[in-house]
Amino acid sequence: xxxxLAEAAARPRPAYRSFRATVARVERLTxxxxxxxxxxxxxxxxxxxxxDQRVKVVLxxxxxxxxxxxxxxxxxxxxxxxxAERRNPFRTYTVRAVRPxxxxxxxxxxxHGDGGPASAWALQAxxxxxxxxxxxxxxxxxxxxxxxxxxxxxxxxxxxxxETAAPxxxxxxxxxxxxxxxxxxxxxxSPDDRLEVRAPSGVDVRWLPRTxxxxxxxxxxxxxVRDRVARTCRLRxxxxxxxxxxxxxxxxxxxxxxxxxxxASDAVLWDVPEGTSLDGDCYAWLAxxxxxxxxxxxxxVKEAGLDRRQVAFMGYxxxxxxxxD
Length: 325
Hints:
- This is Siderophore-interacting protein.
- GO terms for molecular function: oxidoreductase activity.
- The chain has two domains: 16-136, Elongation Factor Tu (Ef-tu), domain 3 (Beta Barrel); 156-240 and 264-317, Rossmann fold, CATH 3.40.50.
- The chain starts with a helix and ends in an 8-residue tail after the last strand.
- α5 (221-232) runs antiparallel to α6 (238-244).
- It is built from seven helices and twelve strands.
- 21% of the residues lie in helices and 28% in strands.
C-alpha cells in the first residue's frame, strides 16, 4: 500500500482534469452572448495560462446528472465506451477569465440558433446549477496544452473570426503585450453584439455586424480581411494580389457549405503550426465557420504569400452541421 501511494504521489499531474463547480452568476452580455460564472473550491487549481486555451463544458444528464461521467484521467476513452444514454454531452469553449483567489471561472456562451445542448443550457442556467469542467491543472507541467495562439516574433498580428471565436479573440487581445500591433476583425450577428474588450492601443479592433439575421457567414469578415491585408501587412506582393483577385471567387457557387470544404466529411478543419511559428512580418489566427476560415486561409497563403507556418486556422463549426463531440 505504501508503495502504491508513493507511486501515485510521484506520478505527474495530468495536464487536463475534471473540476466540479456550480453556477454562481449568469449575465446576458448582448442579444447573442451570455456569460456564466462558475465557482467551486476545486477551481483554485484551474489553469490560468490564458490566450485561446480550450476547455470542455460537460452538461448534466436529466435524472442522473454526472453519475455516469468517468472520473479518471482517460475519461474520453471511458466516455466513448458508455451506452449512448449514459454519455453526458459536452462542448468546447475558451475560458474568458480565471480568478483562482475567488475560485471562479468565466465562460462566454454564444447562442447562434443551432438548438445545441450547450447554448440551450446557458439560456436556462441559474445560480446553484451543477457543472463539470474539463480544463488545465495549474500545478501541472502541461498547463499550457490547448493553446493555439503561437505567433513567434512578428511585427503585426491578425485575428479574424465570427461570433463563436469572439471569446477567444477577446482573451488573446487581453493577453497581448502593450506594444503589440495589428488588427482583430470579428463578425457578429448584430450591432448590439459588440463586446467590451481591453486591447493594446496598437491593435485595431473592429466588430463587423452582418447585414441581416439571415445573412451569409463571412459576408463582412472575408472582405474585411482582404482589405486589411492589402493595406497594412507587408507580405510578398500582397497588395497586388488582393487588388487583382476577384471577390466573386469568394462567393459560394451553390447551396453547399462554401469553397474548400468537403460537405461529406465529418472532419473539423483545424491546422495549427507545431511549436512557434516562422518569424516574419505578420501572423494570422483564424477561427469560426469552417468554409469561411478555409477561404481566408487560402487567400493569405495562396494569394497574399504568407508562409503557411504563420497561419493558424480552426474550423470551430460547420454550417448545416451540429458540433461534433
